[in-house]
Design goal:
about 350 residues, alpha/beta, two-stranded antiparallel ribbon, seven-stranded parallel beta sheet
């Protein structure tokens, strides 16, 4: 494996100098792009799109055709893992993902096993391989998974939730059952991410979307320790190149130092924390990814530019250790041309900062 021609994203994760601050966007292939909507319509459903490697490749590349992004991210869904565990994933239009068989009974939790990614998630690995070939070594490809706790939220609730009542009841009443779910899911995520790396992913990210909803006492026990276990089990090098890892807990600013200590290469930040303060707290340990409020993209291009510059200025001088991103996924209602303003600003202004440092 040789590094991509544009390797700024990988360099930033590894704290190597870059000629500009690299940028990619969480959910960069999505419903805000008309070309994505057309491909999804051809696929018939979101799940069919995820499970078709050629179409998944097509939508992965769409934002890179439109924007000068510094990385591609595999088009898939975090819930492919619990689907492969036999929980029966399905999507209802306008209501989001649901599971036919949520984990509520002790016997079902005791019977839970980690799927073989090459057997039950073969379509994901085929997609990774096809995307790598299509990228032709232009930019890096990011693989990803949900965190065990975030996946457990869906697995136990059976759908998205406003209060995660079933999950938190289990945490406090039957922590043994919750740890059983988290342990099996951690094993599944390790195997899944390593299979993505073997198939061609050049960096991996763990999305802990709901970890920030845990209490200060519960977060280390029910989320962080399992992400640390995953990081420890990941392939760190492939064909002579480092495979960096990113951990993102939405609402995780309270535990920034603890997250930085689990062995990941970078910590993703949401928009509720100042990135300069985050750099002062943990920047000597890890790179940082983030952290523009996604709703800034509804503003005018001039305002988008000024807000992006605030993030870059806050991160401060130097040309290492920062990957620009949103603080969460891009909204489906974002005007596509506003993303152009963001990407161009990040590239142009970060080059100016390097000249003037």
């Amino acid at each position: 494996m040789t590094r991509p021609r544009n390797d700024n994203f990988l360099r930033a994760l590894l704290k190597e100098p870059t000629d500009h601050t690299p940028i990619w966007l969480m959910r960069q292939a999505g419903r805000y792009l008309p070309e994505y909507c057309q491909t999804r319509k051809r696929a018939g459903s979101f799940l069919q799109l995820c499970k078709n490697p050629s179409m998944a490749c097509e939508v992965t590349l769409q934002p890179l055709t439109r924007y000068d992004l510094d990385a591609a991210i595999l088009f898939s869904d975090i819930l492919t893992v619990p689907d492969a565990m036999g929980l029966g994933l399905y999507f209802t239009e306008g209501e989001g993902p649901k599971f036919e068989r949520p984990l509520r009974e002790e016997w079902a939790i005791r019977d839970l096993t980690a799927p073989d990614p090459y057997e039950h998630l073969r379509y994901v690995m085929d997609g990774v391989s096809e995307i790598r070939r299509a990228l032709d070594n232009s930019v890096p490809l990011i693989g990803f998974s949900g965190s065990p706790y975030t996946l457990a939220c869906y697995m136990v609730e059976g759908a998205s939730s406003s209060d995660y009542r079933h999950v938190k009841t289990m945490i406090y009443d039957r922590p043994d059952l919750m740890h059983r779910i988290l342990s099996v899911t951690a094993d599944a995520v390790i195997a899944y991410l390593n299979a993505q790396i073997e198939s061609g992913a050049q960096a991996v990210m763990i999305f802990d979307s709901w970890g920030g909803g845990l209490s200060a006492a519960a977060y280390p026990e029910f989320s962080l320790q399992y992400m640390q276990r995953i990081i420890a089990g990941l392939i760190k090098e492939k064909d002579g190149e480092r495979i960096p890892s990113i951990v993102f807990t939405k609402g995780g600013g309270l535990w920034l130092e603890s997250i930085a200590d689990i062995g990941c290469d970078a910590v993703g930040l949401d928009w509720t924390i100042d990135i300069g303060e985050a750099r002062r707290r943990v920047g000597h340990k890890v790179s940082l990814q983030g952290n523009l409020d996604p709703n800034v993209l509804f503003a005018s291009p001039d305002k988008i530019a000024s807000e992006a510059k605030k993030v870059l200025d806050s991160y401060g001088p130097g040309n290492t250790g920062h990957v620009f991103n949103l603080g969460h996924g891009i909204s489906q209602f974002t005007p596509p041309e506003h993303v152009t303003a963001l990407v161009e600003t990040v590239h142009d202004y970060s080059k100016i900062l390097r000249i003037n440092k």
